[in-house]
Design brief:
It is a single chain. The chain has 175 residues and is mainly α. Helices cover 72% and strands 2% of the residues. It has a two-stranded antiparallel ribbon. Helix 2 runs antiparallel to helix 3. The radius of gyration is 22 Å and the shape is globular.
Amino acid sequence: MDGLEVKDVMSHNGSLHFRVLRVILTSHLADLQSSILEKVQTVMVDEMDMARTTTDGWSNIKSFRMAKNVIRTANSGVFFGESLSKNKRFLTAALQYPDDLLLASEILRFIPSIVAPLAAPVLMRNYRGSKVMAEFLLPMIRRRLEARDRQITSDEKLLVGCHPEAQNGKHEAKI
């Protein structure tokens, strides 16, 4: 997305995606449950409010749209945080992104495989969903990396001050 590539080199622990989704996320589901439930309920109420009521008192709900909105909103809350999960522009882009990705992949099927790695980033940059998501996510990623780097620097200073080997110049921080 917008030139962002994941270098997945976790051969010993499985893939990065597997580790994040199956191990780390699963271990935090209890903490996330109330937030996810609240988001699902909100989307369901919104969808019910938009439903057309028939003359006999029933409501017509577009179930596919509702399911996409529930999944999009819950996923956004879990993966991107509270503020982005409530941002309508971001949520619209999050819903559009998979459609853009599918269209780009279909176009790539007709392009010679030798050209596909060059064409894929170009195709995805032309889609609005990608641009909007990159607009929101790249600054957040940069802030998190900067915060991590500040924490590492702070931790290294603590180690140098406390660790006996660090005072002799023999300590090497392992990150």
